[in-house]
Amino acid sequence: MEASPVPNLPEVDTRHWIGGERVGSPATFVDRSPLDGVPLAEISQGGAAEIDAAVSAAQQAFPAWAATSRKERAELLHAIADGVEARLEELAQLETADNGALIRSHRRGVIPRVAHNFRFFADWLLDELDHPDFETRGHRNHVSWDPAGVCALITPWNAPLMLATWKIAPALAAGNTVVLKPAEWTPLTASLFADITAEAGLPPGVFNVVQGLGHEAGAALVAHPGVRRISFTGSVPTARGIAAAAAANLTPLSLELGGKSPLIVFEDADLDLAADLAVEQYDNAGQVCLAGTRLLVHANVVGEFQKRLLDKASRLKQGDPRDPETDIGPQIHPDHFARVDGFVRRAVDGGARVLLGGGPNTDLGGLFYRPTLLTDVAPDAEIVTEEVFGPVLTLQTFGSETEAVALANGTKFGLAAVIVTSDEERAARVSGKLVAGTVWVNCFFVRDLRAPFGGSRQSGIGREGGTWSFDFYCDLKNTVTAPGGLIHG
Questions:
Q1: What is the dihedral of CA 158, 353, 412, 435, to 10 degrees?
Q2: Are 290 and 356 contained in the same domain?
Q3: Which residues does 229 contact at the CB level (< 8 Å), separation at least 6?
């Protein structure tokens, strides 16, 4: 299949990228924009054969890539970042058309973060990845990070390229080769990114992209015996299947899964700040795994908090994400739209009261779902225990710190939490009791790549970021040398 033109957007070759070449498949699938349902491209649909070819290409490229110096690898990662920055507007436009997120977010933060991911791990590889030698009874211990092999990366649709490069950058920096399986709902920027890596001079086979459906291409990739690391961001049910496949080959895996995070507003909180932080949870039309969707508010301030939140939320502009003035775009796909609406309808049928939104935006039609706030929900209700992944918040009250912590920890997830309080001792005390991989105090979504990132409970396995990423993408080795150095016979 030849390159498919995308109307009014950069031309994207929609074939796979395997061993430094474009490879087509007999089967294809259609990628549609969530903005209006218009077909954007016909995508090569890979399966076991394409996955096997990509893993083989990655295996063949691995020895030479693993043998390159840290300096050479870092230079190539910076060259990739240069390529991303040179095509920032193209990538931003393409990503907005493909996943419906705000063009202003892609321009200002998301696509620049793609370049930053590569620069960060290139610099960390050169300047920070080190462990001081230490002595054991006169013997010298030296810790090193050895490339592991072929890495299988399976990435989500809510921030397709940025989240993919959280994985690609450290995997390549570590000296591994990569096979990427992007989400089938948002494959376009991954394909364009393959061209950027080639233009930067990345050797053939070091980075490969196979497009396709999860139960075909994804399943074949995680079960492949040639894969030495698996990193996945997505749902808990899919992760269970990946873990089972990985177990057969004892393949190490890193999983960043769902969340049902609390946003806790204490009686002493700055209520304007608390309301602003609550409105932020509607970002990306609620399609953010870290979002604090469970608003837990002290009973003494809930009335004033609710008033301020509804006032701020009512000013949000929903519409075309290509308009820089838009605050909330559409849901990603009709199936996901129906899933979100189903959660809300069941909650209302079960007695929940709608304070804001509560259904599709009929003025806009399509996949636009109104920012929604529900209250009068039971602590064990589906709407407060299961991840909705849409613009839906719930409001519950508490009367004591102990009750707030119990409500916050009352789900199977443990990805993140937000605390709003003016009491530093309380903030420290409560954050220490919360089950969460990240806790934000009086802020939200401050993400530094030097920090460990991941979830507890069913929100995931493992941590990535800084040296933690290299710990996962490498085989750690300790070399112990006898006193006096080497003995020559």
A1: 90
A2: yes
A3: 148, 149, 150, 151, 152, 171, 176, 251, 252, 253, 254, 472, 473
242 shares a domain with 267: no
Mean per-residue pLDDT, 232-246 = 96
Question: How would DSSP label each residue in 43-110?
Answer: EE---HHHHHHHHHHHHHHHHHHHHS-HHHHHHHHHHHHHHHHHTHHHHHHHHHHHH---HHHIIIII
Residue 4 reports pLDDT greater than 90: no
On whether both 286 and 137 belong to a single domain, the answer is: no
Question: Are 216 and 363 found together in one domain?
Answer: no
Domain that holds residue 389: 262-441
Nearest alpha-carbon partner for 224 in 348, 57, 66: 57
Give the number of C-alpha atoms closer than 13 A to the C-alpha of residue 35, restricted to the C-beta side.
Answer: 21
3-state secondary structure (DSSP) of residue 351:
coil
Mean pLDDT of the chain: 96
Question: Hunting for tokens 């080497």 — which residue is that?
Answer: 486
Q: What is the pLDDT of residue 448?
A: 94
Query: Is beta strand 139-147 parallel, antiparallel or unpaired with respect to 474-481?
Result: antiparallel
What pLDDT sits at residue 9? 86
Number of domains in the chain: 2
Report the distance separating Cα 470 and Cα 124, nearest Å: 10
Please tell me the predicted confidence (pLDDT) of residue 431.
Answer: 98
Same structural domain, 59 and 201: yes
- Label residue 174 left, alpha or beta by phi (over 0 means left) and psi (-120 to 50 means alpha): alpha
Q: Does one domain contain both 294 and 230?
A: no
Residue 385 located in a structural domain: yes
In this predicted structure, the answer to whether residue 216 has a pLDDT above a threshold of 60 is yes
Same-domain check for residues 267 and 130: no
- Does residue 209 form part of some domain? yes
Q: Average of pLDDT values for 236-255?
A: 97
Query: Whose CA is closest to 154, among 84, 204, 65, 219?
Result: 219
CA distance 63 to 75: 19
pLDDT over 90 at 8, yes or no: no
Dihedral class, residue 84 (left if φ above 0, else alpha if ψ from -120 to 50, else beta): alpha
- Which residues share a beta bridge with 189? none
Structure tokens at 204: 């053939």
Residue in 275, 301, 267 with CA at minimum distance from that of residue 393: 275
**Residues designated as active site:** 256
Q: What is the DSSP string of 210-227?
A: ----IIIIIHHHHT-TTE
pLDDT(489) > 70: no
Lowest-confidence segment of 1-5, 151-155, 319-323 by average pLDDT: 1-5
Same domain as 344, residue 224: no
Phi and psi at 273, nearest 5°, equal -60, -45
